[in-house]
Amino acid sequence: MGAATEFFATCAPGLEPVLHQELKDLKLARIERQVGGCRFDGTRLDAARANLWLRTANRVLLRVARFECASESQLYEGALEVPWEKWLKPDGTLRVKARARDSTMTHARYVEQRVKDAICDRFRRDHGTRPSVGESGVDLGISVHLYRDRAILALDTSGEPLYKRGWRQAQGRAPLPETLAAGMLLLSQWDRRSPLLDPFCGSGTLLVEAALMAADVAPGSFRSFGMERWRDAQPVMFERLRAEAEERRRPIKKLQLVGSDIDGERVQDTDRNLAAAGISANLHLDVLDARLFSPKPGWNGHIVTNAPWGSRVGAGGQERLLSLYRSFGAQLRQKCEGYGLALLGGTEQQLEALNVPGEQRELANGNQPCVLLLKGALGGPA
Fold first, then answer.
1. Please, are residues 151 and 102 in contact by the beta-carbon 8 Å criterion?
2. Around 128, how many Cα atoms within 13 Å sit in the side-chain half-sphere?
3. Helix, strand or coil for residue 380?
4. What is the DSSP letter of 251?
5. Which residues does 348 contact at the CB level (< 8 Å), separation at least 6?
6. Residues of the chain predicted below pLDDT 70
7. Measured distance CA(331)–CA(327) in Å, rounded
8. Which of 147, 188, 233, 263 is deepest in the core (most CB within 10 A)?
9. How many CB atoms lie within 10 A of CB 250?
10. Which residues of the chain form CATH 3.40.50.150?
11. What is the structure's pLDDT at 348?
């Protein structure tokens, strides 16, 4: 399915080790963990499989050029030499997104504009017409990474970011990205069989992602990808991959999923999202204050949850939030012995108020740093 080329899968900070393992599980070649993601070698088929199956990646980029770029002219000439017509029709649509750091050229918007100019000039020179520029639903997305006066140009094989799974029907004020939820679940060491509980379930992202993992459903099953709109797209390849993914799906009717939230509307959102994702597990949803959280003794399940923090705090300030952490921590210590725990919080102060010892992993939700607390079994060693 074509010669091997270089790809880069991006992810949220802190999830690089998890993404690296996912790529290993897909048996891809020459995987290397880097800041913000992992590079790997592969074919067009490998890129399609990565988009369909990676749970923690945000995008999969196909690198098509790299060159010295200390000036506007070097950027323009480097972009002009790339054979964009291989992937984009002259009357197609394109989007360019750039990041520039520690380089002579620092303004990302200007970098984007000069790359667009080069692409359009190449088409106008060779075909007498040029593609148009858009922001969403374009035929070809292009990524420009400029670091220390070296440029990497890449094609966005994903299109919309991969956290946009396609199943979500409802969301709260600050929904947890699906990719971060999947990362939390994978870091929690949940076995995909024991009960999974979320006492701050919001719109149900963690519960849906857990169910998809347990049922071995490809996270990209609900959507299409940018590379399916390329000039040389291979629809038969995707049809085959989706059929193979459907054959892997397994029933999870015995899986216990327990979600609760103090906001009744959010619990209704959870129910809608679980239904939209086709979840047929043993569901238990309830409107409940997490300070009264008291799961079934002896289940030895996993509590994986995104506690309120950051933009989710709302009115009332930090002290009320710390009080919530103190009360919820008491419930965890007194009512949840034997349960595993993965709790996402915003600050070390909040986790100190929780008073539950465990491993802490630094992650990020968008541009907001956060901390994931991991505990193998409450009431036991970390």
1. no
2. 0
3. coil
4. -
5. 360, 371
6. 1-4, 311-316, 380-382
7. 7
8. 188
9. 9
10. 178-219+253-375
11. 86
Residues ≥6 apart with Cβ < 8 Å to 355 = 326, 329, 330, 333
Topology of domain 178-219+253-375 in CATH is Rossmann fold (3.40.50)
Q: Which two tokens stand for residue 151?
A: 């440029």
By the 8 A CB rule, do 26 and 49 touch? Answer: yes
338: which residues sit within 8 A by CB, 6+ positions away? 298, 299, 300, 377, 378, 379, 380
Tell me yes or no: is domain 5-156 CATH 1.20.1250.20.
no
The residues, ordered by sequence, that sit 6+ positions from 370 with a Cβ below 8 Å of its Cβ are 309, 310, 344, 345, 346, 362, 363, 364
**CA-atom Rg of the chain in angstroms:** 23
Count of CB atoms within 10 A of residue 25's CB? 10
Burial 133-153 (b: 16+ CB within 10 A, else e): eeeeebbbbbbbbbeeeebbb
Instruction: State both tokens at 131.
Output: 């593609």
Quote the DSSP letter at residue 338: T
**41 exposure class (CB count in 10 Å sphere: 0-12, 13-18, 19+):** middle
Helix (H, G, I), strand (E, B) or coil at 246: helix
pLDDT number for residue 316 = 60
Where would I find the H helices in the chain? 16-25, 44-53, 72-80, 108-127, 178-187, 205-214, 235-248, 264-276, 317-335, 348-354
Give pTM, 2 decimals.
0.95
The reported pLDDT for the residue numbered 1 is 46
**What is the reported pLDDT for 170?**
81
- The pLDDT assigned to 313 comes to 57
Nearest to 368 by CA among 349, 382, 347, 353: 347
Whether 157 contacts 30, CB under 8 Å: no
> Quick check: 27 and 38 in contact, CB under 8 A?
no
Cβ partners under 8 Å of residue 119, min gap 6? 79, 80, 82, 84, 94, 96, 131, 142
**What is the reported pLDDT for 380?**
59
Tokens linked to 34: 């880097």
